[in-house]
């Protein structure tokens, strides 16, 4: 995994043009069975990828925090929502709450999430490769192929499966 992560940005860069073209076609004419295929590919890839050996998403990007996330996590930490945002979050240029810094403050040394049961929705869903209507999130997926080895593998597999 370490080696895969080291090479991932270059691999994603090498595939960028090809993937961009592929996704443009996919958006124009998504196959009818896309949801089903993506669910299968996602499950296949994640049966081989151990996120605890990686944690690259938690180390390099971090999620958006919704109001519901903030309330839930603050309650768990016995903080007021305002205390939680002051301590851990900042508002980005799109007026969304994001982490003040990465790696995420809640990432343990063993790559376990210290707030796993109450983690943000975006963390639970990352890298979104099993999302319905996958063709609607191809821009973010293109970015994720440089961060997430699983997302990279899913995209390579989908090109083979769907042609
Ligand atoms: S979701 Fe992707 S980037 Fe995050 S830990 Fe798992 S494989 Fe790594
Ligand atoms: S909250 Fe947990 S899962 Fe989300 S980025 Fe932080 S450590 Fe990772």
Q: Structural class given helices, strands, pairing?
A: mainly alpha
Number of helices: 8
Q: What is the alpha-carbon Rg in Å?
A: 17 Å
Order of helices and strands: HHHEHHEEHHH
Main beta-sheet strand count, sense and barrel state: 3 strands, antiparallel
Q: What is the mean predicted local confidence, pLDDT? A: 96
Hey, roughly how much beta strand do the residues contain?
under 5%
Number of domains: 2
Q: How many beta strands in the DSSP annotation? A: 3
Cα-to-Cα separation, first versus last residue = 27 Å
Q: Which residues sit in consecutive blocks of at least 5 with pLDDT less than 50?
A: none
Q: Enumerate the strands of the largest sheet in spatial order, edge to edge or round the barrel.
A: 1-3-2
Instruction: Determine the fraction of residues in helical runs and give it as a percent range.
Output: 40-55%
Assign an overall shape. Answer: globular
Q: What small molecules accompany the polymer chains?
A: iron/sulfur cluster
Q: Layout of helices and strands, plus pairs?
A:
Layout lengths: L1 H27 L5 H13 L9 H5 L3 E2 L1 H10 L4 H8 E3 L5 E3 L21 H5 L12 H7 L4 H14 L1
Antiparallel strand pairs: 1-3, 2-3
Bound molecules: iron/sulfur cluster (2 copies).
One iron/sulfur cluster (SF4) binds next to helix 3 and helix 8.
Short description:
The chain is mostly helical and 163 residues long. It contains eight helices and three strands, in the order αααβααββααα. The chain folds into two domains: 9-54 and 127-162, no CATH class; 64-125, no CATH class.
């Amino acid at each position: 995994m370490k080696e895969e992560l080291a090479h991932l940005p270059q691999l994603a860069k090498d595939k960028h043009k090809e993937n961009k073209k592929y996704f443009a076609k996919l958006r124009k004419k998504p196959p009818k069975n896309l949801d089903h295929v993506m669910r299968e590919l996602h499950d296949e890839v994640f049966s081989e990828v151990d996120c605890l050996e990686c944690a690259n998403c938690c180390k390099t990007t971090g999620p958006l925090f919704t109001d519901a996330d903030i309330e839930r996590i603050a309650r768990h930490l016995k903080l007021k929502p305002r205390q939680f945002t002051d301590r851990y979050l900042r508002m980005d240029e799109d007026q969304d709450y994001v982490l003040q810094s990465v790696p995420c403050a809640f990432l343990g040394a063993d790559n376990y999430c210290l707030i796993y049961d109450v983690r943000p929705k975006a963390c639970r869903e990352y890298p979104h490769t099993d999302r319905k209507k996958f063709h609607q999130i191809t821009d973010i997926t293109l970015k994720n192929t440089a961060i997430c080895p699983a997302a990279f593998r899913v995209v390579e597999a989908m090109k083979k499966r769907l042609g």
